[in-house]
Amino acid sequence: MRITRTGGGRGRRAAVLTTSVLTASALLLTGCSSDSDSDSSDSDGKITLKLTDYGQFGYKEAGLLKKYEELHPNIKVEEETTSTEPDYYPKLLQQLNSNSGLGDVVGVEVARIKEVVDTQADKFTDLKDSIDVSQWVDWKAKQATTKDGAVIGAGTDIGPMSLCYRRDLFEKAGLPTEREEVAKAVAGGWEDYLKLGEQYKEKAPEGTYFMDSASAMFNGVVSSSETQYYDADGKAIYKESPGVQKGWDLAAEAAEKKLSQGLPQFQDPWKAALRKGSVASVVCPAWMSLQIQDYSGEDYAGKWDITNSPGDTAANWGGSFLTVPKSSKHAKEATELVKWLTAPEQQAAVFKAAGLFPSNQKAYELADVKSGKLEYFNNAPVGQIYAEESKSIPVAVLGPKDGAIKETFSNEINNMEQRGTAPDKAWGAATEAIDKAIG
Predict the structure, then answer these.
(1) Would you say residue 94 has pLDDT above 80?
(2) CB-CB contact of 373 with 362 (8 Å)
């Protein structure tokens, strides 16, 4: 999944799950791509299926493609990976528009799926009769469903939101440290999270901050709301959206009270802050914990922990789909591959190997998910935490430019934190830029 994700947000690294404990290992994935169409077969008579994706989908780490070839001796699967999703998606659009160079199986990121569903659905195979979409969390299936009921993408992973926090820093600041107690302290919602931040600031260890980024919190607030950037009719409503307004006001408060270190996530200063140990809490979708472990390093092993996200409504940040273009010369075989890769057993294997949480609910009862723990995070039972969070994620309306809108708001929140830009001026700059960008 994808070194960067969700409209300029997300990063990924691999993980290793041993029976019940999940640990991370940094893997830098290099990209390779081809503009040639899929070959019909090799000289030995095998059918070659080209799978194109970005970042890290976990199939290599879990050994799934090799296993599939062993189960299907007539099939050869070639995975072509682009390191970052922002580099991958423009090329995918070019391939769709020219109907050339597409893989037999193509990955699509959640922030792009609405645009693909609305503008490119006729170029993809309908998977609804091949895959049991009732196995997915319901909001995941709806994201890839057209108005006519066609399902053009099979869900891979999701990013249920949790809260990662430093037990040692919380203790020094006089805050609760046990997961249940921290969850109780923020049970009232994101407002409680800020109140906890004010308490932290009163006794904060020198040189530390309660959170890394107010823009990350903004994303958590918006993503836990039913109403986000668009309404059910496809109208952009980011100026009036209650979720956006609430997220913005809370981010402005966090910036004003200096509860955040004001670091755009995944950039070098953010990574350095984790290495230095100056951040006490991070809004934490499932994949984020492995980023924290990777950049914080062994000095902070066991000092981090994970608990439920603020409030009684969780958020989803991240996730992808596998699609089958109609241009594939082997659409039937490609569909079978997609069906197998997104089945419960394979999604559980990806969680074990790479820490990517399944969208297939049947995987939640399998041992590799149900008993999954992160040793680095004080053996946090992440399989249980993420499964619980996924049940309360609202069915939100997605829009074609969600990624661009989110990124623009985040940039202006960063300006409030780093440059002291007044909230009303930052809001005006953000909405003006979005108006121009989406027309």
Answers:
(1) yes
(2) no
